[in-house]
Each structure stands twice: as structure tokens, then as C-alpha cells.
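C-alpha cells in:
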């Protein structure tokens, strides 16, 4: 009778270990899949950035840094126009 209790206890321990191993494996696989998706997204964004830079260079003859400076300057000019208009209303 004692050996059957020992076997049941051993079976219970191994079942808990198996469940724990499956849970760890599940989260590990899920993390790996998310890492692969993230790496893929990063590559897609890099390709899109290169495409935008190529368009800027071809169509507007400027680099991305020059385009950013132009947009910042336009935003500043727009604020000056809004300030001027609000003072003359």
C-alpha cells in the first residue's frame, strides 16, 4: 500500500513539473514569435525610411535632415503668421 502512495505522489510531482515545463515553453515560444515580429517590423520601417529618403533626394533634392529643418522652419513661420493675425483682428 505504501508503494502505491509513493507512485501516486511521484506521478503528481511529475505532472506538476510537466505542466510547469509546458507553461515555460509556451511563454518562451510566444516571446520568440513577438521578437521575430518586432524584428520584421523594424526591417520594414528601415526600408520605408530608405524609400522616403530616396524620394526626398530625387524629387526635392534634399536630405532627410534638410527636410526636417524645412518643416521646423515652416512651423515657426506659421506661428509667426498666427501671432500677427491675432494681433490685427
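Residues out:
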Amino acid at each position: 500500500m505504501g508503494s502505491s502512495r509513493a507512485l501516486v505522489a511521484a506521478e503528481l510531482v511529475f505532472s506538476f513539473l510537466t505542466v510547469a515545463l509546458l507553461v515555460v515553453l509556451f511563454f518562451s515560444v510566444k516571446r520568440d514569435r513577438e521578437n521575430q515580429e518586432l524584428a520584421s517590423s523594424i526591417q520594414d520601417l528601415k526600408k520605408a525610411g530608405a524609400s522616403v529618403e530616396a524620394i526626398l533626394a530625387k524629387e526635392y533634392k534634399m536630405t532627410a535632415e534638410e527636410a526636417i529643418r524645412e518643416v521646423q522652419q515652416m512651423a515657426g513661420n506659421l506661428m509667426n503668421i498666427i501671432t500677427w493675425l491675432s494681433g490685427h483682428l
